[in-house]
Design a protein that fits this description.
Its main location: cytoplasm. By secondary structure, the protein is an alpha/beta fold. The protein has 15 helices and 9 strands. Helix 1 (2-8) crosses helix 13, helix 3 (62-75) packs across helix 5 and helix 11 (221-237) crosses helix 14. It is globular, with a radius of gyration of 19 Å. Bound molecules: phosphoenolpyruvate and magnesium ion.
Length: 315
């Protein structure tokens, strides 16, 4: 039945009772973008832009960047593409914007923090995104990585709007911004939860340390308690709040996310079909019961077992 549903279901993601959930692709290169754009997705919910910057001795010019963005935007036609501005630094150092080594790279000068140290970096990127947008029909959204405070998203939003980019978001991947999502969404038009880094920072467990896998398990009840808190802020504000971390691509955790109030899921293209089929098999109320069961659990094993119990056996 799952195969049949997967083969039959196409178009926008919907729960069994019709709640729309945007299904989007994560992309990180022009090649990825061309493949994803040919897929059955409503757009890209995470366009990682690091590929333009890493391994270079000088920053890419506005013209170079514009050309790359144009290729990607053109492929998506009039669909939505959420560009995440440069998330370099620390373990992904830039030869042309170095602040010396960090002792704790994950807690160091990365993401928006690096952009703030080298302001020209962000302005150039935003200008290129706006120029490429003007050459295509794409619905472009921009979002900042590693937002930790309201002041930071205000700084980013001002820069983006000054560049003519009017749909501005914050990634929620630092616990402080999840806690303060309500205030972040007074400034931002949308938010997107990066569960990879949110797990790392919530559990103080380096995402590159394999031996801490149990803490980084996406079934950790504490992660979903915090996701629900942030998603509630989105629901109250009437603003989109998505997930673009790995957890959103799991067919069962996607249900937990939707039950929490998440309005879009962005994942690698290969995962979209199963997630779409899983949504089609469950009602919003079933998803909500799953979210409650996860939050009430004490361990990842317990939360997964509780959701399996509530889920259609064919998932
Ligand atoms: C995340 O942290 O969940 C995320 C989507 O961003 P990245 O994996 O690029 O850090
Ligand atoms: Mg991240």
């Amino acid at each position: 039945r799952r195969e049949r549903l997967q083969a039959e279901s196409e178009g926008p993601g919907r729960t069994k009772d019709g709640r729309h959930v945007e299904l989007l692709a994560n992309i990180g290169t022009i090649g990825d973008a061309l493949v994803a754009a040919a897929g059955d997705v409503e757009g890209s919910g995470l366009f990682r832009s690091e590929f333009l910057y890493l391994g270079r001795h000088s920053a890419p010019t506005v013209e170079e960047q514009t050309e790359s963005y144009r290729e990607v935007f053109e492929a998506f036609g009039s669909r939505k593409v959420v560009v995440r501005t440069l998330d370099a630094g620390a373990d992904k150092p830039l030869a042309f914007a170095s602040l010396g080594p960090d002792v704790n790279p994950a807690l160091g000068m990365r993401g928006l923090r690096l952009q703030r140290e080298f302001p020209g970096l962000l302005e150039t990127q935003l200008e290129a995104i706006a120029r490429a947008r003007d050459l295509t029909d794409v619905d472009v959204w921009v979002m900042a990585p590693m937002v930790a405070t309201v002041a930071e998203i205000r700084w980013f939003a001002d820069a983006a709007r000054a560049a003519g980019l009017n749909t501005v978001g914050a990634m929620i991947e630092v616990p402080s911004s999840a806690l303060r999502a309500e205030r972040i969404l007074e400034v931002a038009d949308f938010a997107s939860i990066g569960t990879n880094d949110l797990s790392q920072y919530l559990f103080a467990a380096d995402r590159l340390q394999g031996r801490l896998g149990h803490l980084l398990d996406a079934w950790q009840p504490g992660l979903w308690q915090l996701v629900k808190h942030a998603a509630d802020a989105g629901t109250r504000a009437g603003k989109p709040i998505g997930i673009c971390g790995e957890a959103g691509g799991d067919p069962l955790l996607a249900l937990v996310a939707v039950g929490a109030g998440i309005s879009s899921l962005s994942m690698s293209l290969t995962k979209v079909g199963l997630v779409r089929a899983s949504l089609a098999m469950h009602t919003l109320d079933q998803c909500r019961a799953m979210t409650d069961a996860v939050i009430a659990s004490l361990t990842p094993e317990e939360s997964r077992a509780a959701v399996l119990e509530l889920a259609d056996p064919d998932v």
